[in-house]
Amino acid sequence: MAVRHVLFLCSRNRLRSPTAEQVFAAWPDVETDSAGLADDADVSLSGEQLEWADLIVVMEPSHRRRLMQRHRGYLKGKHVVVLDIPDNYAFMQPELIELLLRKVGPVLR
What CATH number should be reported for the domain holding residue 73? Predict the structure, then answer.
């Protein structure tokens, strides 16, 4: 099976997307990265990341809208999944990890 490149996006790349990146980095045949869509993100989304990604996973519908507005040219043929996970969790919080496994796991299988 080919390696899948999965890019996780949230607002500031501080809590949700770095947690997802870490959780799924250990999965077989999956490589992960993460970034934020806000101007003050710890790691701001780059065109190179979007080109690299096979699958783009965003935490909220607003992230998908922002992604489409700012980076539409990179998204042709890309699959974008919205998880509907609000910004209510700490980095590596067990409840966040459980939600991520439940929502992303089936997409990666």
Answer: 3.40.50.2300
